[in-house]
Amino acid sequence: MFWSMIHRMILWELLKIFFLALIGLTGLILIAGIISEAMKNGFGPSQIMMIIPLLLPSLLPYTVPTTTLFATCIVYGRLSADNEILALKAAGVHIKHIVWPAAFLGIVTSAVTMFCFIDIIPLTGCALRNNVIGDIEELLYTMLRKDGFIKHPNINVEIHVKSIQGRKLQDVIFKRKSADGHGFDVVAIAKEAELRVDLAHKLILVDMRHAQVMQNNSEAVIVSKIWEVELPKEFLGNKNKIRGMDMTWAELFEYEEKAQRQKEAHGVELEMIKTEIRLRGKEKPGEKERMESLIVEQRFHDQRISMIHAEWHWRPALSLGCLCFALVGCPVGIWFSKSDYLSAFVTCFLPIVILYYPTMLCMYNLARDGKIPSWMAVYNGDILMLFAGAVLFWRLARR
């Protein structure tokens, strides 16, 4: 009964619309949002082509649930408009058998999303931040090719060029801002220069040759000069920053175990110091400061553990959204059979945007901070959607 001809027909229609909508929505997000923003920030075509494959997995947890909802609304709305739902019910087919293909689609898409969350999404997201965006030297050259200058609020210099030949900058004007932020205390003009990035010392090196330098109301001609410019923090990516979303599923377990060990070690040391103080009846110099330091470190480890626990539950909760959306989209699509299909989709999607995602994000942040247990925080949105789907199906079955 679960894989009759009607089920295969409905599932085929769902898959067609699902993949078409997924391609369309993903392309729209890439073109209208990410690619245009990347071009504004100086990324060249080669960099954008490198970014796209790394971005696609990160978009799946948000595009797949939306397209699942859209496909169920369209297919079941069309079935109801053609009176096929009514004919099946008249033939004695229960409503649960009719919606089985949508539930199957929701289960499969949830499983695929969770599979991507295990390794693919963390690895590609980390590679995007550390490799593509982290190619600072290429990014600076791209900005110069695109705009002819580099101006950044967190860089205390301005660099203007007339043209670029390979890695050589032609007719370069280098301006260093004064300490008070008003005007420039150094202006250098050179026929040729080259940019290099020293990541070890977090510096941009501007190598100028045959430059005319104006500094402190004096003017001089130098054969070669390397200007050191401090690299802004946002250019350094996240190589040294611990982010739960950048960790694979196995790394989450390893990181949590390491944090637990460190927390226990600090707890043991803290108790030993307290015991020694009780036995002596007084504190030695520096013991109070050490205890305060250990307490701060324990709180830090607690926060790291809370972050890992929140990430453990956040990924399945977000993946489960595909199934929740499918179960809600079916009855709404059937009820809106007489209206246009877009109305059914918007009717489902607006409460999701207003309630589902804000609720999950709010609870996720509270769980990360350790204010709410993770297991009872991030699933609230899914529980709300499943409850709404159950009520809608109950009312639909009574019609």
On the 0 to 100 scale, the average pLDDT is: 81
Q: Which regions contain 5 or more consecutive residues with pLDDT less than 50?
A: none
What distance separates the N and C termini? 22 Å
Strand content: 15-25%
Helix content: 55-70%
Rg of Cα set: 29 Å
Task: Say how many strands there are.
Answer: 7
* Secondary structure category: alpha+beta
Q: What string, H for helix and E for strand, traces the elements in order?
A: HHHHHHEEEEEEEHHHH
Largest pleated sheet: 7 strands, antiparallel
**Number of individual domains:** 2
In a nutshell, what does this entry contain?
64% of the residues lie in helices and 15% in strands. By secondary structure, it is α+β, with helices and mostly antiparallel strands. α2 packs across α8 and α8 packs antiparallel against α9.
Write the layout of secondary structure elements.
Elements: H1 5-40, H2 45-81, H3 84-90, H4 95-98, H5 100-132, H6 136-147, E1 149-150, E2 157-160, E3 163-165, E4 168-177, E5 184-198, E6 203-215, E7 218-230, H7 249-280, H8 287-335, H9 341-368, H10 380-398
Antiparallel strand pairs: 1-2, 2-4, 3-4, 4-5, 5-6, 6-7
Helix pairs in contact: 1-2, 1-5, 2-5, 2-8, 2-9, 5-8, 7-8, 8-9, 8-10, 9-10
